[in-house]
Amino acid sequence: MIIIALLHHFAHCFERYSTRKKLSALPYDLRKDLGIMQDSFEAEVAKGNVFTLMKELSSLSTINLRDKRK
Questions:
Q1: Nearest 5°: CA angle at 33, between 31 and 37?
Q2: What is the dihedral of CA 44, 21, 59, 11, to 10 degrees?
Q3: Residue partners of 45: CB distance under 8 A and separation at least 6
Q4: Between the CA of residue 10 and those of 6, 48, 62, what are the distances in Å?
Q5: Planar angle of CA 58, 12, 35, nearest 5 degrees
Q6: pTM, two decimal places
Q7: In b/e form, how buried is each residue of 1-14, taking b as 16+ CB within 10 angstroms?
Q8: Any idea where the domains of the chain sit in the sequence?
Q9: Residue 13: partners with Cβ closer than 8 Å, 6 or more residues away
Q10: Predicted confidence (pLDDT) per residue in 1-31, tens digit
Q11: Are 24 and 45 in contact, with CB atoms under 8 Å apart?
């Protein structure tokens, strides 16, 4: 059970990492149409690096929170 939760956590972290990378490639006009503010855009793009990915992968507290919600 814990292995499945751990794999789910890893998949979620890699999905967030790739989404942040794709977000950084969006042009300004498209971000404006989507309603993404510049400050929130910069904050999310700044998280799209390997160090943040490793930090999120190593945090196991989110797995414990998900298990408690179920």
A1: 50
A2: 130
A3: 20, 23, 24
A4: 6, 15, 11
A5: 115
A6: 0.70
A7: eeeeeeeebeeebe
A8: 2-69
A9: 53, 56, 57
A10: 788 888 888 899 899 999 999 999 999 999 9
A11: yes
